[in-house]
Description:
By secondary structure, the chain is mainly alpha-helical. 79% of the residues lie in helices and 0% in strands. It has 2 helices and no strands. The longest helix is centred in the middle third of the chain and has 43 residues, at 22-64.
Amino acid sequence: MxxxxxxxxxxLGGESDQDPTALERVRDxxxxxxxxxxxxxxxxxxxxxxxxxxxxxxxxxxxxxxDR
Length: 68
């Protein structure tokens, strides 16, 4: 994602101030980046929940296992 941001910022340097579509492209790119960040955040949340679930199951199994 950092490469996408860098490429986008670099491309802005070549934009003409008279280009009527430049603002719309900026909006589209920022919208896309926001969606990517939201998806990444959602994925992280799911991963954390999976880890928490596995830890809970491990604690239950450990608590139920007989001491040797």
